[in-house]
Amino acid sequence: MKIIEYLKAFSPPEIKRATPLVSMVLALILVGFLGKVGEKIFDAFLILAIPLAPEIFKIIRSVAAYTIPININLLSLLIFILLFFPAYRFFDRNLLSRLKKAVIFEDDFDFGNKGWRLNYWHSNNADKTCRIEQSAMIFEAEDSDLISPQKENGACFDLEDGIYQNSKYEISCWVKADKNSTIGFKLWVHDTRGQGEMKFPANFYTPGTEYEEVKVGFIATKSQALRIHLHYKAGKGKISVDRVRVVKV
Q: What is the model's pTM?
């Protein structure tokens, strides 16, 4: 939906990252609002129902009266948000900067697709060329399967949680190929605006038949976001990718 896309585009980084602390605060605000709505509905019900059974509803009303009052003033809420998010960002960034080898993201594909964009350069056979099966990302494509002139394609993931400007990160994955494969692979990262690009290896390579680790470094830009590409070039055979990981170093 366009409205949701616009909201995501213009939301503060902390909301877009949807960190647990922000989610908790937003949930508390929502619960408070829904509680006030529920109270009004309950009061209206009692007004209509008390004449039918006054003694019973008198008891119910006295029990329901033991609540914690929550008064939400829109101006106070706005001031709270304006103060909370900068403070949260400050503490989150400073805490993260002190951590070494902090795992920011990890996906072993055990539970299907957690947000990867498959076949980002399109495909003539999408179900074959890029898929998740048996807890791995699978790439299998020959030239005729792909649309791009370079005969390249892949899967990408945008990461905004825990990415802070000038912080250093290590992105890694484990990759292997079927025997006699010629399909090539590289790990390619940059921010969501195409800046800070890093690739490893520089040229495509075909891994061995046992899983081997591929790593690349990244220094976060002012976009405070990271795009991970599992990128391949068409060839014979099949490549499997597992355990994609982002570590703050």
A: 0.65
